[in-house]
Amino acid sequence: MSDTTIKGFVEHITYRSEETGYTVLTLCADGEEVTAVGVLPEIGEGETIQCEGSFQVHATYGRQFRIREFSLSVPEDEASMERYLSSGLIKGIGKALAHRIVKRFGTETFDIIEKEPDRLAEVNGISEKKAREIYLQVCEKKDQRDGVLFLSRYGISNTLALRIWKAYGSEVYRIIRENPYRLADELRGVGFHMADEIARKAGMAVDSRFRVGSGILYTLQLAAGEGSLYLPKAVLLQRASRLLSMPIPSQITETPLQPEISQASMQQGCLEEGIQPGAACPPVTSGAGAACQAVTNGAGAAWEREQDAGIPDSLSDEDFFAGLYPESVPGSDEIREEEEHLELLEDCLRNLSADRKVIIKKEEGEERIFEPRAYYTELRTAKMLHDLNITYKGTEADSRRRALAAARKTKTELDERQLEAVIRADSCGVLILTGGPGTGKTTTINTMIAMFEAEGLKIALAAPTGRAAKRMTEATGHDASTVHRLLEVSGDPEKGTVAFGKNDEEPLEQDVVIIDEMSMVDIYLMASLLKAVPVGTHLVLVGDASQLPSVGPGSVLRDMIHSKILPTVTLTTVFRQAQESDIVMNAHRINKGEHPVIDNKSRDFFFLRRQRAEDIIGQAIHLVRDSLPKYVQADTADIQVMTPMKKGLVGTIRLNSVMQQALNPAMPRKREWTRSDVVFREGDRVMQVRNNYQKEWTIRGRYGAVIDTGAGIYNGDMGVIRSIDPLTDLMTVEFDEHRCVDYEKSELDQLELSYAVTIHKAQGSEYPAVIIPMLRGPRMLMNRNLIYTAITRARKCVVLIGDPAVLDDMIDNTMQEKRYTTLDLRLQECEEQKHQQEEDENPFAWMDEPEADDGL
Ligand SMILES: Nc1ncnc2c1ncn2[C@@H]1O[C@H](COP(=O)(O)OP(=O)(O)OP(=O)(O)O)[C@@H](O)[C@H]1O
């Protein structure tokens, strides 16, 4: 059908998607009403537009005009002008005033507004000030629309274009012409690839310094997404070259994976050295320490994100790693090209450093490149931890007495290390308590609480996720909150506007702060926490360093332990004995690289051999629906299937769809909503997938009376869809403790079906029974760390279903992606500085230093 041009004013906007800009509107053109559809920037009713496109007949909606090209016109006749001014687009002008303005100036109205705005004051009811405001608004609207239209030509969505316009205003034309990469470097939501596409359309050279510089910064951001806080220069330049599709200089190579130094081996070291009662310096996990670098498993979280970014299911290890290595030996031309390229990269890196966009540090035999925020956050975190880590001198004997009294009061038989931990929590500013499942961490925390309470101290308990906080509350009998809630978070983390009410100016008032599940705390949350903890507070950090690391950047728990600067007690005795819990014993075996016996003679650890994905899923459904609830005396909703991946034959996407059909099939009386092919049905199990601090919840009594209200639904919170109300257009989800939350359709992106969840998402939660499909997946993901984390989520029963060889391979696979972090090094630097300072102040102090105080 041939293109036509129509011009008219927007009489009514029937529908508009803010996300895509898709708009359905009624256009009044030559006295005729036309339904027009197309992707348009933000326009208002009353505006005059000119559109190019064609008339088509839609099967349901009939004849409509499909807009291909679009431009805004200044209203030309008096009626359009009046309509525009009174449409509400210009604040402060209503119908009557618009009428008076147009009556006064006629068809020259817009000329007057733009060129002689002062004359608006001639109209009754318009002061000079108001005239100026009208002028500014009209100009601003016009400029904004022109800007958005200009950006849309580069394929930028309207919503994003509007944000770009708000950030740069009319400077955007120059930015696009000179350096579109600024958008990627400075604005959330604009990635390097988008800026690169804009630059390509704007005709920018591929070896432009702006492009290379932006590529380097983007490479650092990607590394942060995988958990790293810096990259060694060689690694950075190689990854950046790959991103920029430029030759990879053969002078630089990267080792992407390396064996994990497991918690077990760290503990082994500790066992050998032991924690000698009376050791002068704080006992630390060591042994493997010298060899142990800040290595953590970032692979999983990163892999999950990459899956979301569209990596095909079928990607094999070979495919994945193929991209990581140079393919062939270069010839002389290629070598020259590589050299030039290396020079360009180095030069751009120097410029970034001069502009303070990166920090380059030479340490430990290499050059390291940090984003300034990452560098200073680690540095400040180390400094704050170091400052907090005071030893209350001369109190050791008192601390021991208090710890023993608390143990007596709670009728707890503490072993040597547990007692050591309680004493150090009292005598030190910072204590790290670490150990695997069943090693008595909770018991130790409870004794600490009793001790601090007896001293009349105020205690705060917190954990990184809602579920972990709930578990902490149950285990201690004391209220625990999320760390975010403790710090009185406000704002929206998705938009990067998080603020904490508790900080260095308004610190926490409690005398003792105990944080559980520390393995999930990333460096930024840690820094925010420490800011709010004043020196003199007792900070107790509890966690299992063998669990998956935090989703966010950093390797906080492991680095703190590895630094050997902070008092650390590692619990290694497993108190839950084999006859009582094979889950715990097997988890410890797996952590040490041993293979559990899978003869199904256990009461809580089972392996069901199945080869085909269909059989695995069928078996999982049978267990969830029929056998496990009775076996562990729990609700069907408490039996959790957890799997390594989102995609694939037994990934969460597929499992959720199949399990939904089996456990909560469609029925005429069950209402449902659909979002991106996923059906959300009344009765479905769902999980909140991001923190929403503002989301309000209500608890109602039997007859609907409100019993309690509050705000905050967190990433990982699980619930059931209770109702979908067609009248209010709201979906009500009931979370733990009967907290009911209403969701609008547009908020469905905050929820996912949760019949099956990824192991990463289940981190920090516990369930009565856990089912884990064992089917082959990417080796990078399927490692010991992951299976250890999955198994330790179960309280009463674990059922693995699939191929036993997969379990064996996971246990043997200790390869994981390296997280580049330096909190340990910074802590050591703080300590060195302290010694140096002491030495400078009194260079002969060592001469009259007493013999090492045994501390206890
Ligand atoms: N010193 C001890 N002597 C005997 N039993 C103990 C001792 N300490 C803890 N226990 C028992 O061992 C079991 C596990 O202890 P606890 O729950 O404190 O460990 P945990 O490390 O917190 O475990 P998880 O990480 O699995 O929650 C509990 O039944 C507890 O009563």
UniProtKB/TrEMBL annotation:
Gene giving rise to this polypeptide: recD2
Pfam families, sorted: AAA_19, HHH_5, HHH_RecD2, OB_YrrC, SH3_13, UvrD_C_2
Gene3D superfamilies xrefs: 1.10.10.2220, 2.30.30.940, 5' to 3' exonuclease, C-terminal subdomain (1.10.150.20), P-loop containing nucleotide triphosphate hydrolases (3.40.50.300)
TM regions (residue ranges): none
Gene Ontology CC, one term: exodeoxyribonuclease V complex
Single GO term (MF): ATP binding
Source superkingdom: Bacteria
Biased composition (Acidic residues): 838-856
Segments forming domain AAA+ ATPase: 427-612
Key words, A-Z: ATP-binding, DNA-binding, Helicase, Hydrolase, Isomerase, Nucleotide-binding
The keyword Metal-binding is annotated on this UniProt entry: no
HAMAP family: RecD2
SMART domains assigned: AAA
Role: DNA-dependent ATPase and ATP-dependent 5'-3' DNA helicase. Has no activity on blunt DNA or DNA with 3'-overhangs, requires at least 10 bases of 5'-ssDNA for helicase activity.
Name of the protein in question: ATP-dependent RecD2 DNA helicase
Binding residues annotated for ATP, in chain numbering: G438, T439, G440, K441, T442
InterPro entries in the cross-refs: AAA+_ATPase, Coronavir_polyprotein_1ab, P-loop_NTPase, RecD2, RecD2-like_HHH, RecD2_N_OB, RecD2_SH13, RuvA_2-like
An annotated GO BP: DNA recombination
Region Disordered: start-end pairs: 831-856
Catalytic activity, as annotated: ATP + H2O = ADP + phosphate + H(+)
CDD domains: DEXSc_RecD-like (cd17933), SF1_C_RecD (cd18809)
